[in-house]
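Our consortium's second objective concerns turning raw sequence data into structural hypotheses that experimental partners can test. To show how far this objective has progressed, the report includes one record in full. It was chosen at random from the queue rather than selected for favorable results. The single chain below, 340 residues long, was entered without modification.
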Amino acid sequence: MNLVSLGRTQLVVPQLAFGALPIQRLGMQDASHLLRAAFAAGVRFFDTARAYSDSEEKIGNALADVRSQIVIATKTTATDAAGARRDLETSLAKLRTDYVDIIQLHNPEMLPQPDDEGSAYAALSAARREGRVRFIGITNHRGAVARAAVASGLFDTLQFPLSHISSAEDLSLVEHCRRHDVGFIAMKALCGGLLTNVVAAFAFFRQLRGVLPIWGIQHDYELAQFLELERNPPELTEALTAVIEQDRKDLAASFCRGCGYCLPCAAEIPIPMAARMSFLLRRAPYRQFLTEDWKAKMRRISDCSGCQNCVAKCPYGLDTPALLKTMLADYEQFVSEHGA
């Protein structure tokens, strides 16, 4: 497999990394089967989080006996030392290990103060000195915070959304990390499911030196596809470049990335899906979104009170209520045209 070196951590792993968020939707047996298959095929980097329900537990159940052969990255949303210690203890127990390779602050709105003994960062630093954490990273969806985190010297890795439709500014973070010897872990490589040409996405990342994309994997056929692409890596041909340019054109405007940080919604609107509905209807098998259940979910948009909580929490600065209204109008038109 093609190898990636994660900055000053000196961790060298296959570029095919396993994003474990989707396995929370699997039963324990199916998750174990998928994780073991990935390990058997040579996958060595597994990314999870305290916030991913039982994802950590499933990794521990499946891979505890090969712990020394894999790299585990997890995350904590805690902002204080007590919360970070609590999350770390829980993660270690669930993962059935006595250390994690990388623990990441999970999308903080601002950087911690390194001299604040009550901060989550201080607790993670202490855990590193104790040998329970090897490296400290950060994940973020805000370019300015990500850039400052890399330059701060506090973090060994950055996890940030990156795909073949990323802006030039976001892509420049790759070189920014390289200059500061910080490992770059790319999330949302398929833009939350909006990018459907996996071959084009895979070819794009093969051009980026030192970037580790984590692919969310839930099914055997998804794992098989990525393994085949790894065995026979596609070149970035004119045809694939044309696909990428079309994706950039189609998704050039502001759009919801599906990160979910806007939730919970007081009106119980499934914002991460509803705010992308126009794209999902045209980029995925659309019948799944025309059920009575989905019609009822989309109608909840009309119950929006305009509380602006989703706007305040959106790391991309979207006017989410306005976007949802646009999506509802398009959805109703689509339903009418398709006789559903």
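The partners drew two points from this record. The longest helix spans residues 320-337. The first strand starts at residue 3 and ends at 5. Both points have been shared with the crystallography group to help prioritize constructs.
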